[in-house]
Amino acid sequence: MAQRLALQRLLALPTRGPLASHGRAFGTSAGRRSTFNVQDGSDFQNRVVNSPKPVVVDFHAQWCGPCKILGPRLEKLVAKQEGKVLMAKVDIDDHTDLAMEYEVGAVPTVLAMKNGDVVDKFVGIKDEDQLEAFLKKLIGA
């Protein structure tokens, strides 16, 4: 009975998606705190445009193969920066208005934003060395 109850509690815990951020967080790393999914236009304004830290904005889509390679690679490198830069993930299918506003014509598109302005941008997949150079340029290191 106790094992069944423990299993039910474990299965009830959300591990992904918007519900995962509610309640207690177990085993979060610095990478998780520096990367977030944009919820809507006002969330983008508050957490990206008004951010005191530089922000890398990853415009992606669930159906995009290169996005599935680039996203985790970029998240890992942002986490290595230990809070000097944040990463916002924007699904273009959920946020077409933001994609149009920032002239995203293909995915993945990655913007570097500082003080609310786009200071750099690339389209397509990059290797780790290129991504590190992109981040260092944004941070000013």
From TrEMBL:
GO cellular component, as recorded: mitochondrion
Listed Gene3D superfamilies: Glutaredoxin (3.40.30.10)
Domain of life: Eukaryota
Annotated ranges, domain Thioredoxin: 24-140
One record GO biological process: cell redox homeostasis
Listed Pfam families: Thioredoxin
CDD domains (UniProt xref): TRX_family
MF term (GO), any: protein-disulfide reductase activity
InterPro entries per UniProt: Thioredoxin (IPR005746), Thioredoxin-like_sf (IPR036249), Thioredoxin_CS (IPR017937), Thioredoxin_domain (IPR013766)
Keyword annotations: Disulfide bond, Electron transport, Redox-active center, Transport
Keyword Membrane: no
Family note: Belongs to the thioredoxin family.
PANTHER family: THIOREDOXIN, MITOCHONDRIAL
Record-given protein name: Thioredoxin, mitochondrial
Species per Swiss-Prot/TrEMBL record: Loxia leucoptera
